[in-house]
Design brief:
There is one protein chain. By secondary structure, the chain is an alpha/beta fold. It has 2 domains: 306 residues, 3-Layer(aba) Sandwich (Aminopeptidase); 83 residues, Immunoglobulins (Immunoglobulin-like), CATH 2.60.40. 26% of the residues lie in helices and 23% in strands. The protein has an 8-stranded mixed β-sheet, sandwiched between helices. The structure holds zinc ion.
Length: 457
Amino acid sequence: MKFHQGKPCYLSKLRRLASCVPAIMFAAAVALAQDPVEPPGGPLKVKLLPAPAGAISLAQVHPSDLRNTISGLVSCGTRHSLSSWTDPKRGIGCGRDHIVAEFKKIAVGSGGRLRVIDDRFEVKAPRTGNRLVPMENVYAILPGDDPALAKTVFVVSGHYDTMPTDIMDSTSDAPGADDDGSGTAVSIECARLLASGHYRATLVFAAVSGEEQGLLGGTRLLHYLEQKGYTVGGMLDDDIVGADFAPGAPHRVRLFSGGGTVDDCDSPSRELARRVEEIDGRSHIRMIFRVDRLGRGGDHYPFYKAGLPAVRFTEPLEDYRHEHQTPRVVDGVQYGDLMKFLNFDFMARVALDNAEALRELAMAPAPPTDLQIGGAVTPSAKISWIAPDDPERAGFEVLWRETTNPRWSVFGFAKSSGEFVFKNVSTDNHFFAVRSVGKNGARSIAVPAVALMPRKR
Ligand SMILES: [Zn+2]
C-alpha cells in the first residue's frame, strides 16, 4: 500500500508516523465536514420488542418434499397452459392433480382448517391465440383466527405452467423443473410448514397457471381475492428459485421490488421487501430495487401495478440454457429446464425465508394508515397517522432513514396513533414512516409518510 509521494507506511514507527501525516491530516479535514446532528441531543432511547417466538428452523424444511413435488410435476411431460386439462398422465391437468393431492394431504394435518380450492376460469389473450381457453389456479387457504384481520391475506405463489422454446407449442416436452416447479414446490412447502399454526390474518398458498401466456393466472388470483373481499397484506411470488450454480455457493436469493411512482415515497412493494429482509436477515436476502429482471415479468406484477405490496424471489443468477428451452443437446451442451440442475438445499432455504416472512406478517397488527408529514419550514417534523383499535398492538415504531439509505431505523416509539413530533429534526434530510408492532413482537410493513402540502412548482 502506498500513500503520498510514494512513501511506504511500514518502516520504523517514527518514519511510519511521519510519512502518514498528510493522510491523517486529510482524514481530519474530512471528519470536520460533518452534517448537523439530528436530533441535537442524539438518538432517543427506544426499547425494541424482540421478534415473535417460535421461528421456523431450517431443520423443519424438507428438501425431499421439494424434490418429490417437482418430480411429480416434471413427470407430466409438459404443463403448457394450452395442453390437456383432462389427461391424467400428460399435460397441465396432470400438474394440477399433483398439486391438489399435495395440498389435500396437508389439509388433513391441519385439522381441516386448510381449504383447497380449484379455481377454474376462462381467459383470452394474445398468447392463447386470442381464443377463450380454460385455465385453473389451485389455492390452499388457511383462515386467520382474528376476526379483525381474517379478511387480510398474505399470499405465496408459484406458477405451475411451463413452456418449451416456442411459447405457443403445447405438445413438446417442457419439464419446467425450475421455472416454475421450484416456486410451486416452495408454495406447497410453506403450506406444510404453516398449516398447523394459528395466525391472526389469512394465509393463501397459491399455484397458478397461465404465467407464460401473459401473467393470466396471477391476474386471476388478484381478481379472485378482490371478489372475495380480501385485502392483500403482502404477496410473495416465487419464480425460478431452484438453482444456485455460480461458484462460491450458497448465495443469497434475490428479492425484487418496484419503487412506485409517488415522489419521495416508496411503494408498498418496496416496504414489503424491506420487511422480508429484516425478518430473514441480510445474509439470506439480496434486495434488488427494481420491479423485476430487465424486460421480464412475473405474477407479482399485477399486484404491484394495483398498488399492493408484492415482491419476487428469484435465484442468485439465471442460466438461460435451462429456461424456456425445449430439452435437447447441441454441440455437447444440454438445454432444457431439468431436475438435475436444481439445488434442493438452496430451495429449502428459500422456502424457509418465505414461510418465516408469512408467519411474522400474519401475526402482526394491521399497518397504520393516512400517514402524513408536516412541519415544513419549521424546526420540527410532525408525522400523523391513524389505526383501528387493536388490543394485541403494543404501539407503533416511528421510522426514519437517510434519503440515500435503503433501510429504515427506529427513531421512536408511540403507544397510540395520533401525531409524533421529531423535535429539531428537519423534514427535508430524511424520509419517515410508521409501522405497527404487536405485543408478540410482530411488525407490520412500514407505511411511509406523504407530504401534507402539495409540492410548489
Ligand atoms: Zn416463471
